[in-house]
Design a protein that fits this description.
Number of helices: 13
CATH architecture of the largest domain: Orthogonal Bundle
Strand content: 5-15%
Structural class: alpha/beta
Order of helices and strands: HHHHHEEEHEHHEHHEHHEEEHE
Distance between the termini: 35 Å
CATH topology of the largest domain: Arc Repressor Mutant, subunit A
Radius of gyration: 22 Å
Number of strands: 10
CATH class of the largest domain: Mainly Alpha
Helix content: 40-55%
Length: 288
């Protein structure tokens, strides 16, 4: 069975609608084709995401019979919030664009009101690089989206992780592309630090508000972005210590303590494992 034929039948396989003969042939193909196997994971995630779009009354609306939320502007950042916390953040653009995006996401209107001091502090702390330890968020995510956001909040200030790491953290190691789409759709950036996720190939990668904004945010948190660029050019993905035989992400605080003479660069996880290195328990650069 060819890949094109397989991909037209993936959803039917997921829902159990295929004839047993076709199902067997398709499953045989998936066992030998990694690309098509990844597509099955992507379709399953997409199906779950579509189900989550079924609109029920928002929690805050059910509780208070209130079908509008508040918004304000802090410098060039638009902020929508409820009594329970942040609902949407967007940098730049017009007020009408922000209102339209909010209505599209939540099906609710916005009224302008001065942002409460606790929420303002969370936002300004995130924008300045000071970070926010326990942000107040009220976004009602789908199950997987919520897991992705929880994992993003576990990335320490001043460090970065890869999309592959994020997929491992939520138990979907083969669904890197789908997980990346959740990161790209993060409605409360800066506070939920999607800017701390970078490609496995190195460097800082893309960002919804532009690469320079991402570099600026990471620098403000203490990340050596120029160093990340340099490591990417060298092909270095992980850094190990000769004295402990532990390997880390380059930005891990433990990796920063390795003396230069004891630093061992690695291009891939299997290279480190073959040389007897084990992954750092703190930054978890790859599955043991």
């Amino acid at each position: 069975m060819q890949c094109r034929s397989v991909l037209t039948r993936v959803d039917a396989l997921r829902t159990g609608e295929l004839h047993p003969v076709e199902r067997g042939a398709l499953q045989d193909h998936l066992r030998t084709c990694r690309s098509c196997e990844d597509s099955v994971d992507d379709v399953s995630l997409l199906a779950g995401a579509v189900k989550s779009l079924a609109v029920t009354s928002p929690r805050s609306c059910r509780e208070s019979i209130r079908c509008s939320d508040s918004f304000d502007r802090v410098d060039d950042v638009w902020v929508a919030y409820s009594k329970l916390g942040l609902r949407m953040i967007h940098r730049g653009g017009s007020e009408s664009d922000f209102r339209a995006a909010y209505t599209s996401r939540y099906g609710r209107e916005l009224k302008r009101s001065e942002i409460p001091l606790p929420i303002r502090k969370q936002l300004t702390g995130a924008l300045s690089g000071e970070g926010t330890a326990r942000p107040s968020i009220d976004i009602e995510p789908g199950e997987l989206e919520g897991e992705v956001m929880s994992a993003l909040l576990r990335i320490p200030r001043g460090e970065v992780r890869t999309y592959s790491w994020l997929a491992e953290q939520v138990g979907r190691p083969k669904a890197v592309r789908a997980i990346a789409s959740f990161v790209a759709r993060n409605v409360v950036p800066f506070v939920v630090p999607c800017h701390r996720v970078v490609p496995i190939s190195g460097g800082v990668g893309k960002y919804a508000f532009g690469t320079e904004v991402k570099r600026e945010l990471l620098r403000s948190e203490g990340v050596d972005v120029d160093g990340l660029d340099s490591l990417a050019r060298e092909g270095t993905r992980f850094v190990g210590s000769r004295t402990t035989n532990i390997v880390c992400f380059p930005t891990c605080r433990d990796a920063k303590r390795i003396q230069e003479k004891n630093r061992v660069p690695f291009r891939a996880a299997d290279e480190a494992v073959k040389k007897g290195f084990r992954p750092c328990k703190r930054c978890q650069p790859f599955a043991a």
